[in-house]
Each structure stands twice: as structure tokens, then as C-alpha cells.
Amino acid sequence: MTDRPHYITPAGYAALRAEYEQLFGTERPRLVDTIAWAAGNGDRSENGDYIYGRKRLREIDRRLGWLSKRMKAAKVVDPVRQEDRTRIWFGATATIVDEDDQERILTLVGDDEAEAGRGRIGWNAPIARALRGAAIGDLRRVHLPAGEREYEVIAITYPAA
User: Can you give the chain as a three-state secondary structure string?
Assistant: First the structure.
């Protein structure tokens, strides 16, 4: 974990929590029962249910540990409460245009919530870092793997209360 704040929206935190509760409360106990049943069948060295169950249990425990750490480090920020709605901050939805007049609509969310294909960009992504604090009409230069691009901010919105 880094020293940076781990920002997340209330919906993103709820999704992490739901995954944790599903794994811990449903999937893990069912898997433990399967492993116990398989262990009772005798030779464990060739018992597929036992071998697969132990492997899957380790995966679940690793994921539970990761989710637990992320939830403890999370700083839940509700974009609805953003006071300065004239600039791009966490939770903002920004409409930007590049030099080729290609328009993109991006929402700045927590890194764990990012889905670039749906326009949800992680707070620490290069384009999100470049857009932080920008107002309508500002030009921002972004260093991307494909090269440097310049974007103009043409609209900023936040979720309604």
C-alpha cells in the first residue's frame, strides 16, 4: 500500500463490501464443507475435490485479505457533497475534446472502480491526474503511452443530491 489516500465513492465501497461479504459469508463456508467432505473420502493425493477445494480456498483467503486492506485504507468521498463544482475533482464527470475534435466523457472514480471502457477513470490514472483542478475552457496536456495529447475541458458535472 502507498501513502496516498485511497479515495473511493460510496457505491465503490459498497461493491467491495458486498464482494467481501459474499466470499466470507457464502462461498468460503460452502467450500470448507466441500473440502471436509472430500477429506473424509480417503486418499487426498488423487482427490480432485480436495485438491481443487484447497487451492480455491487459498485464492479466496488471499482475496479476502486484499479486500480487507482496501476497505481499511479507503477514504469514502461522496461526489454529491463536492462544494467546488466549477473544477474537476474526485467524482466529477468531465467532457473533454482533443486536438482532433474527438470528444470523451470521463468520470474520475477510485482506482478500484475504474472501467476505462465505460469512461470511469481511476483517480491516479495519467489523464485523471492531468485533469485534476481544471475548469471549463482549460487546456491540459497528458502524457500517455501513445504519446502526448492536449485536451480542452468543455463541461463538468457532478451527481445531483
Answer: CCCCCEEECHHHHHHHHHHHHHHHHHHHHHHHHHHHHHHCCCCCCCCHHHHHHHHHHHHHHHHHHHHHHHHHHEEECCHHHCCCCCECCCCCEEEEEECCCCEEEEEEECHHHCEHHHCEEECCCHHHHHHCCCECCCEEEEEECCEEEEEEEEEEECCCC
79-157 — its CATH code? 3.10.50.30
Q: Per DSSP, what are the bridge partners of residue 96?
A: 104, 153
Q: Which residue has the higher pLDDT, 44 or 127?
A: 127
pLDDT at 152: 96
Q: Which architecture, in CATH terms, is 6-76?
A: Orthogonal Bundle (1.10)
pTM of the entire predicted model: 0.81
Instruction: State how far Cα 85 lies from the chain centre.
Output: 23
Q: Which residues 6+ apart lie within 8 Å of 109 measured at CB?
A: 8, 9, 12, 90, 91, 120, 121, 122, 123
Domain layout of the chain by residue ranges: 6-76, 79-157
